[in-house]
Amino acid sequence: MGYLHGSVTAAHHAREKRRREEEEEEEMTKYTSEELDKNWEFKIVRSLSNAFHRPEVFQALLQEESIAGWELVEKLDDRRVRFKRPRDARRKDINLPPGYDPYRSTYGSMAVRNTSLVIGILTLVLVMGISLLGIFSNGETGFFTEEVISAVIMFFVLVVIIASLIARKKI
Q1: In what order do the strands lie in the sheet with 80-86?
Q2: Distance (Å, whole) CA 75 – CA 102
Q3: Neighbour count for residue 106 (Cβ, 10 Å)
Q4: What local confidence, expressed as pLDDT, does residue 108 receive?
């Protein structure tokens, strides 16, 4: 049950963190009447990792967004950047390169999220499988002792951490 509780707690913390970030964005992104009168439109581009910490990634983002006329307003943190552009820039969107989304709000590959999801599911299946083996062993001591189960779980946690670091290009 401890594993399930830990997952529920982690999910709760993630939701709470996202709620706080949304509140922070609302507070930080108050628009002046002058900005609204000049017909600006705004957006925030988010990264799943701290990608915008790296200057070359941040500069690439700025260059990519400028194609559709977006201008930097502010870098909120290493995961969120706010842009603005005149509303009439929409008329030029028809001329953008194929596949270019002027209203994208995420940066980076979804492969990071997908890899994390697959690893998480595999780990969950492994833990459930080991738990079921423990239940059906009728309490007899055998290969699936608590130490072995703990070692296998620690191994998969280590695999998840390493995969996450590789996906974020930290190693």
Answers
A1: 71-77, 80-86, 40-47, 106-107
A2: 18
A3: 12
A4: 78
